[in-house]
Sequence to fold (373 residues):
Amino acid sequence: MSDSQIPLVDLKAAHAEVADEVRAGFERVMANTAFIGGEEVREFEREYARFAGVEHCVGVANGTDALELALRASGVGAGDEVVLPANTFIATAGAVNRLGAVPVLVDCFPDSLLIDPDAALAAVSQATRAVVPVHLYGQCADVAELVGALPVRVRVVEDAAQSQGASRDGRTAGSGGIAATSFYPGKNLGAYGDAGAVLTDDEELAGLVRALANHGGVAKYRHDLPGFNSRLDGLQAVVLRAKLARLDAGNAARRAAAARYDALLADLAAAGRVVLPVTAEGNVHVWHLYVVRVTGADRDAVVGKLNAEGVGAGVHYPAPVHLTPAFAHLGHRRGDFPHAEDAADRMLSLPLFPQITPRQQQRVVDLLTGAIN
Fold:
């Protein structure tokens, strides 16, 4: 990848590191015709459970299904309320909606942009069945505070789609009870298509998730409960196993790149032109995204200028859930969640991936400085 063309995520470089291993794995799957499930899937589930510090990992078709399955297994159903942050990818609310449950939105902290536990607790009602803290951009929300304060009838279901390898106060993301993660190609651990997983220490919950994701049963033509089809395939498991072996090193490289950005952007931050990302106390960040907030300039114009120069800057996410047409029926207006709204108006994601070079980062910052000024 040249310095003139810097993608937001360099999937080509990531593939080059595992290409031979993936090719050999694909040949194993083809030889065994183990296209759905099979040994590659079982091995990946064991390896990822060990990596995440949980007893059980159930591979599924994608991250949205993983969250829906985790909620279903936790007893969430039609009419129940589920508390979640307004500043998240639409899939978090979408999974709740697919259950016929009601998303109850709350605001985030103004600095880390993680869900505000006090706001979440204040939103709990008699109809609340779950709270979904989102581990945003690569760092963990405060699950321990939520678990300690919520009534027993309300389960915490972690959205750990952006936090593979992150931890908070020594607790690995996804290890708080039941969690969903995504292996979408751009994640820190990305497949070559859609894939996801549910994580838990509870054997009964893991078995229920596995059954729900397999048409409601674990044996052919035996369907003990209504379910649907959401299974991880052998080819994706091959890719994920190869990349998982390199994930710790990749996350370390991301942390180093984030530190370089912090240093390179220090003058812009001191001048009040950008707000740098904040790591909440106790977090070991894995920097799925490096998100700054632009001050005193039109964010969309800045993105356009960077893109025109070959820099793959992006916006995660341009509108909080309550301001999307899909969830207008919730009845919220601009001003209801001011921290989430302010972030959405100003945030800008800079290129970040394990293989990014200091020279590429210097170019990104030089172009950002010019675009802002």
Remarks:
- The longest helix spans residues 11-32.
- The mean pLDDT is 97.
- The chain has two domains: 11-244, 247-372.
